[in-house]
Amino acid sequence: MAKAVRILVAKPGLDGHDRGAKYIARALKDAGYEVIYTGIRQTPESIVVTAIQEDVDFVGLSLLSGAHNELFPKVVELLREKDASDIIVFGGGVIPTEDIPFLKEKGIEAVFTQGTPIKEITDFIEKRLEK
Amino acid sequence: MDLVDKVQSGSIRGIARTISLIENNSPQKEDIIDELYPHTGNAMVWGITGPPGAGKSTLVDCLVKRERKQGRRVAVIAIDPSSPYSGGAILGDRVRMQKHSTDEGVYIRSMASRGHLGGLSVATGDAVKILDAAGYETIIIETIGVGQTEVEIIELCDIVLLVLVPGMGDEIQAMKAGVMEVGDIFVINKKDRDGADRLKTEVEYVLGIKNALTGEKPNPVLLASSKLDEGIDELVEAIHDYLKKAQATGRFEEKRRVRIEKEVHKIFSSKVHELLNIHLDIENNLGEWISSILNGETAPYKLIKSKLNRFVKENEII
Q1: Residue from B141, B137, B12, B134 nearest B72 by CA
Q2: What is the pLDDT of residue B206?
Q3: CA-based, 20 to 30 A from B64: which of B116, B142, B226, B311?
Q4: Which chain B residue is nearest to residue A23, measuring alpha carbons?
Q5: B162, B151, B149, B133: which is closest to B46 by C-alpha?
Q6: CA distance, residue B112 to nearest chain A CA (Å)
């Protein structure tokens, strides 16, 4: 059996708007990936432990509350601390364009804002898997 | 440090990686499992099964909480179905268990069924061994939501909890063969709902008929609400009680014997299959075989028999 690609779709922060995360989770399932979904209001700590226990290849973070500049980099940082920096982090949600360079600098490899076609996300995943 | 050492030292990354290797059927799989095998057999394995939406994951969450209170290290394997179309899966059982995510005494792993039909995934049995060797004392397996025939869980567990909810049919459903036969303990979940008491009576009635035939003691049927965390202490007590009694009566050892027997059968079949696949070069010959059946030269049984006979003769096996 070929290696299955595993992706954790997680919602850090306090907002409960999970439609986007659920939409992405479903779309990634339809693209043939195994998606672990953990529900709303996850701490960066629990996201990182989950990613490691589940041995995922990617973590996709969804956030609409505006706390992305704190919470997204925190996840990357904790993954590094736990010797799991090989897990690729991407993000999405309501993210102002001007914040994206900062997030990328902090190790979030891609940021997908509202209206992104799913193909862009699966292309990113496939490209990143080739590396 | 190699993976086997990492598993035994309890490294979460090591355990997680090793389970992935098994799931992906890596060539290292057999050596890893054999190396870990002498360190298995210490964990108690609980199976939780029942129809979709019966509240299995929420119940597992409650059970984990109780086992942790007793100071036991707990691992959970939660299986959800893979899509028959894309092969992808949504593994969502963790949603109900996330409050344990940062407890170092709890390991939770979601697995996709990857086309396997018995309610588990092919790798579940080996994943249990990895977690057992890693020192988890209680291992809980949650099956995919089952219908009437997914009973493979009995092959892996020391005890099986069948979770039922009101509103799924009359006692004739409960009398049928299949899933209804595999419960060691029956849990009527969502007991706050209408019909829970009636369902309990019906299940007890059906079990009464079964026990009148076998002469065995009736299986416990317990009302619970995992959402409200009610009836769980009684359930956990019943589980430990059952396990203790099973150990005293020898039923426990017998179950484990049967488990090994089934496993040996399974490995034997798959190895023979693999071996013959290579020797008969099925991949390259299959097209020709199909054509010979299609154009009436031979029939399916006849064809396979002749191929096998030739294989046996050529290799002077008999």
Answers
A1: B137
A2: 85
A3: B116
A4: B90
A5: B162
A6: 7
The answer to whether the Cβ–Cβ distance between B114 and A2 falls below 8 Å is no
Residues B38 and B150 occupy one common structural domain: yes
Report the C-alpha gap between B78 and A33 in whole angstroms.
17
* Of A2, A34, A52, Cβ closest to residue B112: A34
pTM: 0.92
**Averaged confidence pLDDT in chain A:** 93
Q: Are residues B65 and B11 in the same domain?
A: yes
CB spacing of A4 vs B114 below 8 angstroms: yes
Convert the pLDDT of each residue in B29-84 to its tens digit.
999 999 999 999 999 999 999 999 899 999 999 999 999 999 999 999 999 999 99
Candidates 3.30.200.20, 3.40.630.10, 3.40.50.280, 3.40.50.300; CATH matching A6-130: 3.40.50.280
Tokens linked to B134: 């890693």
A30/B86 touch (CB, cutoff 8 Å), yes or no = yes
- Do both B198 and B275 map to the same domain? no
Percentage above 70 pLDDT, chain B: 96
Which residue, of B263, B288, B305, is where some domain finishes?
Answer: B263
H/E stretch holding B243:
helix B232-249
Give the Å distances, CA to CA, from B92 to A21, A34, B148, B235, B260: 13, 11, 22, 24, 31
What ipTM score was computed for the predicted complex, to two decimals?
0.93
Query: What is the band of B118 on the pLDDT scale with cuts at 50, 70, 90?
Result: confident
- Cβ within 8 Å of residue B87, ≥6 positions away: A4, A32, B114, B115
The whole-number average pLDDT for the span B287-308 is 94
pLDDT, mean of residues B226-237: 95
Q: Check whether A14 has a pLDDT greater than 50.
A: yes
* 3-state helix, strand and coil shares in percent for chain A, rounded to the nearest 5: 45, 20, 35
H/E stretch holding B30? helix B29-36
